[in-house]
Amino acid sequence: MAIILVLDDVFDAGAMVKKILEKKGYQVVHFTEEEDAIKHVRKNKIDLAILYIKLKKMCGIEVLEEMKKIVPDIQAIMLTGYPEMGTASRAAQLGANDYCIKPIDKDELEEKVKDVLSS
């Protein structure tokens, strides 16, 4: 089964995503700190990164950029509470496969994860 990394600076939000995806049988690692998530990608296999855009120290797009340097073919779904075309466009240019708007719809998240991992 796929290994998914979730990065959200709000612990409970990331924990909720983790719980939803673990129920579907995915292995999920959850981080609240950008540096910890990037270090994990350096040392471990990750099939999909789910990254919140508005973080504490970096934006999720910068985190995606760093992760792509380490694992160029890593899949990514961006999470945002503030949908903006410029942000979505920049994320797509960096290779984000999709994005979800917060509050997260469980069914939408499950479907997008399934679609990204099967592509």
Overall CATH architecture = 3-Layer(aba) Sandwich
Average pLDDT for all residues: 91
Low-confidence spans: none
Tell me the domain tally.
Answer: 1
Key structural traits:
5-stranded parallel β-sheet; globular; Rossmann fold; 119 residues
Describe it.
The structure is a single chain. With 119 residues, this protein is α/β, with parallel strands linked by helices. It has a single domain (3-94), classed as Rossmann fold (3-Layer(aba) Sandwich). It is 47% helix and 21% strand. It has a 5-stranded parallel sheet with strand order 2-1-3-4-5, sandwiched between helices. The longest helix has 13 residues, at 11-23. The model has no long low-confidence stretch (mean pLDDT 91).
Offer a concise description of the structure.
The chain has helices spanning 11-23, 34-43, 60-70, 85-93, 106-118; strands at residues 3-7, 27-31, 48-52, 75-80, 98-101.
Topology:
Blueprint: E1 3-7, H1 11-23, E2 27-31, H2 34-43, E3 48-52, H3 60-70, E4 75-80, H4 85-93, E5 98-101, H5 106-118
Parallel strand pairs: 1-2, 1-3, 3-4, 4-5
Helix pairs in contact: 2-3
